[in-house]
Design a protein that fits this description.
The chain is an alpha/beta fold. It has helices at 45-55, 60-63, 65-69, 80-93, 180-189, 205-216, 228-238, 253-266, 279-287, 327-343, 365-378, 393-397, 399-404, 423-435, 461-480, and strands at residues 22-24, 36-42, 101-109, 118-129, 134-142, 148-157, 164-166, 195-200, 220-226, 246-249, 271-274, 300-306, 314-317, 350-354, 386-391, 417-419, 440-446, 452-453.
Amino acid sequence: MADTSPSISPSRTLVVNDDLHTVRNRTFEEIAIGDTASIERTLTAQDLQLFAVLSGDANPQHLDADFAASTRFHGVIAHGMLGGALISAVIGMRLPGPGTVYVGQTLKFLAPVRIGDTLTIRVTVTARDEAKGRVKLACASVNQDGVTVITGEADVIAPTERVERPRTTLPDVRITAGDGGLHRLLDHVIPMGAIRMAVVHPCDALSLSAALDARAAGLIEPVLIAPRAKLEAMALQAGLDISGIRIEDVPHSHAAAARAVELATQGSVDALMKGSLHTDELMGAVVASGVGLRTKRRISHCFLMQTPAYPRPFIITDAAINIAPTLEDKADIVRNAIELAHAIGVDQPRVAILAAVETVNANMPATLDAAALCKMADRRQITGGVLDGPLAFDNAVSAAAARIKGIVSEVAGQADVLVVPDLESGNILAKQLEYLGGAASAGIVLGARVPIVLTSRSDTRESRIASCAVAILLVHHYRMAPP
């Protein structure tokens, strides 16, 4: 949020050249009627979320865009008392400043405040009480259109001693995506019914727990494929109940992968989930010639992610399967991502082909591939989405960054799919978003005849469940449009 220096009446100028580093007050003796101070704030969705967390006021009018659209305000509005808190900030930090004691505050809310509004919050001294050292201040908050949204009056005891101190460094606060998106996803897929999922060699507590959690959530009917004795001993030691679950007894992990692929080929299971075997071992069985799970497309992986800093879920691909994809590979990676976007309800996904720059450079192969992919889309070799590239990451997700660079694009600033140049850059990007950006994620493999859930030892329970929910969406999508 923007933070300007205080505005002081012409007759009472306060020097605040180092306002970002120092806080200072004005004592009662220094205050005159007509003195004024102000701050400016541009409200963001995170401001409303933070206020809801601190106050406990989770009224959907302030947080739920779908609900808010049906109200008299036709959209999300800020909490009224958030505006009151901003008035308190002017009084406590600017006029009179540190040492002020609140006695009373009145407020009138005249117009709604919305995300993106820039507010000028101003207080003006209207009266002084010499006997009590008290000051009355007229308070007003005005938006960028000149509309007064809040008025009121504050009654305070002004400080009598001068305060000038270094500004306190506030802690960084990170808002995580939470599990609201997961709840909405589950609400959407559970009515579709559980799918039959082959869980391949779940011979550690983590991978077996993932299958049992998804079963308990009503998402899957697991078929456990593993050496029975080893699986049962591990479950007993971990305190996991696998009674009543079908077990396919195989001698080792290679046989488990082969049997899972066989069941999928026969139509006995709808999807696969990786257990405690290596990814290459499972995928080697999936792509083996003659087994029936291969399609004409290249196999690729998609992360479906949701982060507080971006207004919609988005896909990152490929960050787990193709190490250094060729142009032909990337075309299939894009096609698979578009198919996933369709399955989750995005009819015309905006696909950003990422590179380090947004111009074509013969010395940067990623930019050449991006340009070629976009031309393939123009020639309808790739359909179902809108492609643009090369785009640097900032231009793909920030409309402001795109405007600054003069990029006119249907994709820039609002991408639904981010196609990375190679596995390393994609894996780093996805993990940065998850661990530093508070993103929630699900992972799925496409390009085979059934969806494949690739679990990682570091995945959260929510991520594993979300991945199974995405598999359900794909299973139903494939029933309508077989891969």
